[in-house]
UniProtKB/TrEMBL annotation:
Coiled-coil region list: none
Pfam families referenced in this protein's UniProt entry, alphabetically: DUF7730 (PF24864)
Domain DUF7730: 21-216
Annotated segments matching region Disordered: 1-28
Name under which the protein is recorded: DUF7730 domain-containing protein
Cross-referenced InterPro entries: DUF7730
UniProt source species: Cercospora berteroae
Amino acid sequence: MDLQASEETPTPTESEASEATPESPLLALPPELRTRIYHYVLGGHNIHISSHMVLHEDLRVMNTPSYGHTYWDNTQRFLTREQRVRFFYTLCDVPHDDDEAYKQSCNPRIGKKGQHSNAVAPYRERHATCLKHLGPFTSNSSQDNLHLQFLRTCRQIHQEAALMLYTDNTFSFLREKDALHFLELALHRRQKRALRSIVLFEDDIEENRYYAKAHASKDFQNMLKLKEAVLIRPDPEEDPYVYRNLAEELEELSKVPEKAWEAVYDYYCDHPDLADVSFDE
């Protein structure tokens, strides 16, 4: 996975760009129309992301073009000298499913015996076809890939559209530490600050408590454009105190200047539980 293509991939020289611009029907369009086209090509997706650890001794095999780019941690906050990490992504098959689940959970139908008659399937079940692609030995079909090559066509398109990859998509992480690895190791500062919507799915609460305590304020601060952060809890019977700690991590987002904590919504206990944090425009 290389979502850094919008920053790291060399773009044409200025002379090459100037020569290409007059002949481009796309660049002859008004800016507002180009923006709509950029969004259609790059945006509107829910992007599932996971990470996989790679030991240094395995890099000779793993660090190949077919395997993809691996990242290392020069600060050693997350990884030791012997470790690398590779990120995997796939585009969501059911991008509107979570919104529908949220609406159902806010307006449950209660049967005569007190049970919910419209219970919502758990997150992993709803996104089963998406998550099966997230692993070191799986591959995405072409329709599951972002069109990053579009950003390599010329300098002007790169300058106008590169950050739309982050402003116009939702980034959904299988684990909290996947999110922290991605924010810290894979993104440049401008990319991180451009994010508007993230989802944290806590598959193993106990495994991720270290990250919640140690890195919350540092990793989620200064995300000035962030408008929505969602925490999905897989087990409603888990100790509420554990989830409260994780919710406090999302609350750090409200401390961004000129943003206001708006609301926290909690699903019914036999539905997927979410803490939905929204910010005023």
